[in-house]
Amino acid sequence: MKPALIHKIIPHSIVDGPGNRTSIFVQGCNLKCAYCHNPETQQVCSNCGICVEKCPTGSLYFENGEVLWEEEKCDSCGSCIQHCPYHSSPKPKWMTAEEVFKEVEKNIPFIRGITVSGGECTLYPEFLQELFILAQKAQLSCLIDSNGTTDLSQYPKLMEVCSGVMLDVKAWDRKKFKRLTGGENEMVKKNLKFLAHTNKLEEMRIVCIPGEVDVEDILEGIKTTIGDKSRNIKLKLIKFRNHGVKGRLKNTNSPSDEYMKDIQRKALEMGFQHVNIT
Length: 278
Ligand code: SF4
Ligand code: SF4
Prior knowledge:
Bound molecules: iron/sulfur cluster
Protein name: YjjW family glycine radical enzyme activase
Distance between the termini: 37 Å
Number of helices: 9
Family: Belongs to the organic radical-activating enzymes family.
Largest sheet: 9 strands, mixed
Helix content: 25-40%
Shape: globular
GO molecular function: 4 iron, 4 sulfur cluster binding; metal ion binding; oxidoreductase activity
Domain 4Fe-4S ferredoxin-type: 37-64, 65-95
């Protein structure tokens, strides 16, 4: 039984897939996106201790060289995350699938499914598989929100119990992807094809930032890669907002509503049929 480092669990969310869902955020990511709005989920805490003295409620303390968190004392002021220079948090907990599912179970009368996000949740494939088996037994749909850098074709059992993947397509051009995220996008393209052809592509997501993200190039790339499948898969155009961003784009403004509508119009003209702006 492999645990995952859990950043937080949101009991009810209506922004992480269809219907009301419990959203589980893991800690740790293999990309460093310049526009990440959850930068505190990127790194696993190194126990440097900087945040301990910044905590106004004494919720953080050292024990055997590890920074520990007393949840009962915490007032969620955010000072620890604000002062962490390493894009981390002292609060995540290692939890097994059973432990996470116990939290999910409390919400069952009110939710349609669960979504696991991050950080990058596919860094914990065994945990995901175990959690989804439990959730499916309870008739819950199970979605993954992913940056697409893990080869999902290597996890057939996980894909069997996964209802769908919401895939970020951050850039099509290799150099632009590297500049934006620090990583490589070969695998994202491979996953796009794999998920579309196995009917597991729940949604494609593009964060729109004029001058940084070439949305038309991404749309062309998607169409060339998955052809007519692109018509019936949801496409979400996400308006960049710098709230919470700590990376290079922290002072970049949001695109205008007109820009977003123009991109949406272009996507529709290209044959995408389910295009939403958020
Ligand atoms: S959010 Fe962080 S700094 Fe604030 S009280 Fe909780 S542990 Fe302390
Ligand atoms: S959360 Fe950040 S500042 Fe606090 S101990 Fe961990 S790495 Fe250091």
